[in-house]
Amino acid sequence: MKYLFEKPLKEGIILKRNNQFTLDVKINGAIEKVHCPTTGRIGNIDLKNVECLLSDSTNPKRKTKYTLEAISVSNPNKINKKWVGINQIASNKYIDFFLKNHLLNEMINDYSEIKREVKLGNSKLDFLVENTYIEVKTPLQRLQIEYDDNIKTKKTTPFSSTERFKKHINELASSLDFNKKAILLNVFQYDNPGYKIINPSTNYKEIKESVEKSIKKGIEILASKY
C-alpha cells in the first residue's frame, strides 16, 4: 500500500525564493507564487533554477494554488531524477496514514487508538499511539545526498535553533515515567544513505547530552525514509 496524492504532482522550475513562505515557480510557461511549507533552509542549495514537484490545492480560499513538495538534485536531462521531499508538515500526514494502515509494525504494533497533537508537559507531541508517544522530525538543514553538477550551493552557518528539539526530547523522556515506550522518529523524504552529523549546530554539545540522557532513559531514536 502506498500513500497517493489526491492529484498527480506537477513539475516546475523555481525562479526565486521570495521569503520563508513563498517562491516564484514557472509551471507550463506561467509564473505562479507557490507556498513553501519549509520555512528554514533546504540543505545548502541555491534554489534558483532547481526543478521541483508541486501539489495542487483544492481549497479555493488559499492565496497560493500550489505547494512545493520536492526538489530535484539531478541534471534536468536525467530520466530517473533524484527527488528530495521537503514538505516537513506532510511527514505527519504520511506517518498518520502508515499508522492507520498498520504499515509500521516493526516500530510499533498491537494498537487500536491513534491521537494527534497530544499535550505532554509544556509541549504538544505529534502522536500518542495507545500509550506510546511519537515525535516526528524531518531533517533538512543538511541533506545526506550527493547533488549533480548543475546544483549550485551557498555557504551556510551552523544551525542554532535547537530549543524546540531539546524541549520535545526531554518531554518524550519524561513520558517514560508512566509509559513503557517513547519514539523520536526522523523521517527522510528521499533515499537517504545514512545520517551523519557533518555540520554541528552551535549548541551541539548541549543537545548531544540531552539525547544521550534520553536514550539511557529508554527513548528509541529511529529513522525512516519515504
TrEMBL record:
Pfam families per UniProt: SfsA, SfsA_N
Q: Which ranges carry the SfsA N-terminal OB domain?
A: 15-86
Please give one Gene Ontology molecular function term for this protein.
DNA binding
Q: Which residues form the Sugar fermentation stimulation protein C-terminal domain?
A: 92-224
Q: What is this protein called?
A: Sugar fermentation stimulation protein A
What is the originating organism of this protein? Methanobrevibacter oralis
